């Protein structure tokens, strides 16, 4: 069974992991978040009770 031979698949996994960690990951981490978390306290909206016409 050829899938049990680790020699080609280990090399492919190693190259893929190195590509991700050395090339793709720094580019992804360099992006600035478009919606950064704010330091303001969350405000709760004020709601008025609904007046039901049949009560």
Q: Secondary structure elements and their pairing?
A:
Elements (H helix, E strand, L loop, with lengths): L5 H24 L26
Structure explained in plain terms:
It is a single chain. The protein has one helix at 6-29. The model has no long low-confidence stretch (mean pLDDT 82). By secondary structure, the protein is mainly alpha-helical. It is built from one helix and no strands. It starts with 5 loop residues before the first helix and ends in a 26-residue tail after the last helix.
Short description:
With 55 residues, the chain is mostly helical. It has one helix at 6-29.
Instruction: Give the H and E element order.
Output: H
Estimate the mean pLDDT confidence: 82
**How many strands?**
0
Q: How much strand content do the residues show?
A: under 5%
| Overall outline | elongated
Number of helices: 1
Broad structural category: mainly alpha
Percentage of residues in helical conformation: 40-55%
Task: Calculate Rg over CA atoms.
Answer: 27 Å
The residue ranges in which pLDDT falls below 50 over 5 or more consecutive positions are none
Distance between the termini: 76 Å
Major sheet details: none
Task: Describe this protein with a few key phrases.
55 residues; mainly alpha; 1 helix; 0% strand; elongated; single chain
């Amino acid at each position: 069974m050829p899938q049990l031979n680790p020699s080609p698949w280990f090399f492919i996994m190693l190259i893929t992991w190195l590509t991700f960690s050395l090339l793709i990951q720094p580019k992804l981490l360099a992006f600035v978040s478009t919606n950064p978390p704010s330091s303001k306290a969350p405000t709760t909206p004020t709601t008025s009770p609904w007046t039901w016409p049949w009560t």
